[in-house]
Amino acid sequence: MQTSAATLVIVPTFNERENIGSIVDRALRAAPRVHVLIVDDGSPDGTGEVADRMSSADARIHVLHRTEKNGLGAAYRAGFAWGMSRGYELLIEMDADGSHPPERLPAMIAAVTDDETGTIAGSIGSRWVPGGSVVDWPWTRRFISRGGSWYARTMLGLPTRDVTAGFRVYRSAALVEIDIAAVESRGYCFQIDLTRRIYAAGFHLREVPIEFHEREKGESKMSSRIVGEAMLRVTVWGLRRIFSRR
After folding, report:
1. How confident is the model over 161-186, as a mean pLDDT?
2. Burial per residue of 96-124, b for 16 or more beta-carbon CB atoms within 10 angstroms, e otherwise
3. In what order do the strands lie in the sheet with 90-93?
4. What is the DSSP letter of 164?
5. How far apart are the two ends of the chain, measured CA to CA in Å?
6. Is CATH 3.90.550.10 correct for 7-244?
7. What is the DSSP code string of 27-55?
8. For 21-36, how does the pLDDT look when each residue is reduced to its tens digit (9 = 90+)?
9. Alpha helix locations (H) across the chain?
10. Cβ atoms within 10 Å, residue 204
11. CA-based angle 38:42:48, to the nearest 5?
12. Quick one: the chain helix, strand, coil %, rounded to 5?
């Protein structure tokens, strides 16, 4: 299947100067007809300037400059709004650090566009379904990641195996349906929040196996504050769900 320019890959960046060129090049080689939007949160390392040069050299690449680092969720909401205002039908979340393999873009897009039921709102590049994997992770990190996904899907009653996954394809129409502008989650909890809202609206998500790689350059943006936000919000949402059924 060949993708079209109705598809926008959104790549949030903060200090990803060393990675952004490679990841965008891989994305455009894997799916030559998609467009890419780099959402830079005022990176002091010059990522925004690198992105501007890339955009000048390739009409498929666009840049959205933001003045402050305000969380992953806010960056994606800004990217979604940019894409929806320009008529893109599919909006894709992808990290800049190389952990999400762009070579899986065609399969992830097909998982959405090949839907004949009208209920598939998007797809997830999943580490925790058959065929999925992670590379160079110690057992402790595997345990935390899988445990976090188990806790979230159990508390929220979700069928998705990799609830915290950040490599995703969404239909713009589904994001409008769930009122994406009202989502307040800032960190990686943003992914869990969208998942629960998608299912609450009567849609479904398909999981496509990927091989997840740890970043080789730059510093991880994960922190205890981000994990804490996710645990707190999931617990609150889960308890509301449990008590609302009594």
Report:
1. 92
2. bbbbbbbebbebbbbbbbebeeeebbbbb
3. 61-65, 35-40, 7-13, 90-93, 168-171, 120-126, 204-209
4. T
5. 47
6. yes
7. HHHHSTT-EEEEEE---TTSHHHHHHHHH
8. 999 999 999 999 999 9
9. 20-30, 47-57, 72-85, 105-113, 139-156, 172-177, 189-200, 224-244
10. 15
11. 45
12. 45, 20, 40
- Residue 17 has a CB neighbour count (10 Å cut-off) of 19
Q: Are 74 and 65 in contact (CB under 8 A)?
A: no
Tokens 């839907």 correspond to what residue?
115
Structure tokens that stand for 185 in this block: 């989650």
Strand 90-93 relative to strand 120-126, pairing:
unpaired
Residue 160, both tokens: 């998705």
The residues that bridge with 62 in the sheet, in sequence order, are 37
Nearest to 153 by CA among 143, 144, 161: 161
CA-closest candidate to residue 103, choices 14, 31, 186, 179 = 31
Question: Which residue carries 């060393």 as its tokens?
Answer: 18
Tokens of 125: 């590049």
Task: Please write the tens of the pLDDT for every residue from 111-135.
Answer: 999 998 889 999 999 999 999 999 9
Quick one: tokens of 50?
A: 């690198």
Name residue 75's amino acid.
Answer: A
CB 125 within 8 A of CB 208: yes
For 127, counting Cβ atoms within 10 Å of its Cβ (0-12 exposed, 13-18 middle, 19+ buried), the class is buried
Residue with tokens 């090049």: 25
3-state secondary structure 113-135: HCCCCCCEEEEEEECCCCCCEEE
Task: Write out the two tokens for 155.
Answer: 């508390």
